[in-house]
Amino acid sequence: MEEIEMISWVQYLPSIITALGSIIIAWFTYNQYTKNKKTDLEIEVLKHKTIAENERRSDNCAVVYGELYDLKDKFGADRVYIVQPHPLGNEDMLSIYFEVHRNEIKEMKPRIQKKKISEVANFAKHMATSQFKIIKDIDEQVEDRYARSIMMSMGTKELIMIRLSDNKNDWVGTVFCDFTDEMRVDGKFAEQAMQKCATTIQYILPPIRD
């Protein structure tokens, strides 16, 4: 009798194994489906976030360029640009991304791209610590020889500069108004206009992308 019952149970074993296999496959399929849906959702969220960030960066870039053009026209400057340290949090390079200039004047931008801060250490320190400054004599007032040579090779005679900082007062860049001839700008007016520009752009200034 027991032998008959054993035989009876054994004959159902393939069906039981098949059923268990189906359950396991279904569980793995559902689990993978759930993971795929979660991944799809994460990708979609990241996609929308990236689009939003790019739109915001585009808007901020437009504001920055607008302010630089405004300074160029107000002062009659030949070039207006922003020197930015990067990457933020571990700054060891300087680059120019934002620049406006008169048509017949060469851009400063190509000369300052991923420039090692160590190569212009004195001038980098000056930018990081000076809130506002008017430089009337490149030879006398720019101590860093490498920075001075770049300016002189580009025909720079005089400069107005102002520091940009974030909400922690960390240095994030310096705006330069560059003149290849004697500037005709009242010092007080220059300081007020530069301060307005700094206030407008320093918290929205897009960082250099490495």
How are the SSEs ordered, and which strands pair?
Layout: H1 2-10, H2 13-75, E1 79-86, E2 93-101, E3 115-116, H3 121-129, E4 132-135, H4 138-141, H5 145-153, E5 158-165, E6 171-179, H6 187-201
Features:
210 residues, alpha+beta, 6-stranded antiparallel sheet, elongated
Tell me the fraction of residues in β-strands, as a range: 15-25%
Biggest pleated-sheet summary: 6 strands, antiparallel
Write down the secondary-structure element order.
HHEEEHEHHEEH
Shape: elongated
Distance between the termini: 81 Å
Q: What structural class results from the helix and strand content?
A: alpha+beta
Radius of gyration: 31 Å
Strand line-up across the major sheet = 3-2-1-6-5-4
Low-confidence residue ranges = 45-54
Number of strands: 6
What is the count of DSSP helices, taking H or I runs of 4+ residues? 6
